[in-house]
Design a protein that fits this description.
Length: 161
Amino acid sequence: MSEPRLPQIWVDADACPVAIKEILFRAAERARVPVTLVANQYLRTPASRYVRAVQVPGGFDVADEEIARRVAAGDLVVTQDIPLAAAVIAKGALAIHPRGELYTPDTIAQRLSMRNFMDELRGAGVDTGGPAAFHPRDRQAFANQLDAWLVRRPRQPSSPP
C-alpha cells in the first residue's frame, strides 16, 4: 500500500519575483516541503532534495496548463495568473499571489471578472497602467501566507525513536 501524497508547492515561475523564489527555497529546506518551479525557460535552483524546476515548451499558458494538470488537492500554487488560480482552486488546491493575496473560492470569481474587464479595456486601447512596484510589505505578506499554509498542511509522520 502506498503512502498518501503530501501537499507540495507549485510555482508559476516565469513571472515570479526573485525575492519570492528565495523565500520558497528557504521554506522548502526548513519545512521539508517539495517546491516545483514550472517555466518555459531554464531556471537556476539551489542544490536541494526539496526544490526542482520543470521546463516546459514555450507558448501561451503552457506552464499554467502543466501546473493545472499536476496539482492535487491540498497543494499550494504561487501565481499571478487569475485563470490558473481559478483552475487550481477548482481542483481543491490553494493559490496565492506573490504579493501575499490568498485566492479563495469566495474571491476568485470577482478577480476573474475584474481581469476580464481590464483585458477588454486594454483591447479597446485604454492604458490601464501596470502593476505597482514590488515592496518589502508585499514580500512580508507573502511570507506570512506561506507560513500559515506550512503550519496547516499535513506532514510526514515522524518515525518512532
